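Dear colleague,

Thank you for sharing your sequence with our group. We've completed the structure prediction you requested, and as agreed, I am returning the results in plain text so they can be pasted directly into your records. Please verify that the sequence below matches your submission; if there's any discrepancy, let me know and we will rerun it promptly.
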Amino acid sequence: MIEIRKIEYDTPSYWGVVRLREIVLRLPLNRRFSKEELRNESSELIFALYLDQKVISSCQYIIKENSVKLRQVATLPKFQKQGYGSMLHQYAEQYL
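Please find the predicted structure tokens below.
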């Protein structure tokens, strides 16, 4: 079953999304998130797509005044090119 959720900062769901992003985007570059980088995310809008209650994709948006900017989309490699990232982004656009 597919479920898309808005993720609140510094919740268990948030930390699951951080781990997903670290696996997909950071570790391949031999990088980790700093505490400051994560603190800066407190004002961002975050969504996650769950497949059978496991987070497989996430997207984040920076909101400033009257504009919204897509910051990043991350999908586990096993689930890439199957439309999950697009589905998540479309949901987020409707939400916005």
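Summary note from our side: The chain has a mean pLDDT of 94.

Kind regards,
the structure core
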